[in-house]
Amino acid sequence: MSEKRDVNSLLDLDFLQKLVVAIGEVAEITGVPTRKIRYWEEKGIISSVKEGEGATRRYDYLNIKKILLIQELMDEGFTLDAAAKKVENRMKNINEVFFRLVNNVQSNEEN
Fold this sequence. Notes:
Elements: H1 2-10, H2 13-18, E1 20-22, H3 23-30, H4 34-42, E2 58-60, H5 61-75, H6 80-110
Antiparallel strand pairs: 1-2
Helix pairs in contact: 5-6
């Protein structure tokens, strides 16, 4: 029972969808400078949540995860483009596994 509750807390999609952080906080959390984050957004590698003209850039959970993964790969010597491509492939794989996990948990709850 405890394990099931732990898995459900990790799969709290509602929470993850609401998790939106300002660019300064993202820079502080990830260690990636705001200028670099803006550049990556200009290149289309990541995207901010649009909240109106002139509003502070804000980023959701998936984009924060991308920022962390891209920076990690760049620290290992990959170029920005190569790191972004690798991360995009990883994110697709992670999403597929995540959705299978959610479906399994939901199936088990129904039984």
